[in-house]
Amino acid sequence: MKKLKNEAGLVKEALRVGAIYAEKRGVGQVDESDPQKVKVTFVYRLLVHDNLIQPLAKGQENEPNMRHKLALWISRQLPKDHPLLKDE
């Protein structure tokens, strides 16, 4: 698994967008006081359940891999000229 440029920023954006998606879908809310690990797991499992991302292989479902999947997902959703996708 190769780390993406700006992966931390991409994960933060994925959690923000994922929280909005979850709220609009009516499945729950991501609270600001929730730990990062809980937010990552919630958004990852919601996106897998809705078939928006492919699930990780059995035994590979851990926080770093979920964060990477979320970063990949949001990088495909953002416009090509988004600042998080720029090479620096």
List keywords for this structure.
DUF5062 family protein, DUF5062, mainly alpha, globular, 88 residues, DUF5062_sf, 3 helices, Four Helix Bundle (Hemerythrin (Met), subunit A)
Write a short abstract of this structure:
The protein has about 90 residues and is an all-alpha fold. It contains 3 helices and no strands.
Write up what this structure looks like.
With 88 residues, the protein is an all-alpha fold. The protein has one domain: Four Helix Bundle (Hemerythrin (Met), subunit A), CATH 1.20.120.1930. 55% of the residues lie in helices and 0% in strands. It has 3 helices and no strands. It has helices spanning 7-25, 36-49, 63-77. Helix 1 (7-25) packs across helix 2, helix 1 packs across helix 3 (63-77) and helix 2 packs across helix 3. It is globular. The mean pLDDT is 91. This is DUF5062 family protein. Pfam families: DUF5062. InterPro entries: DUF5062, DUF5062_sf.
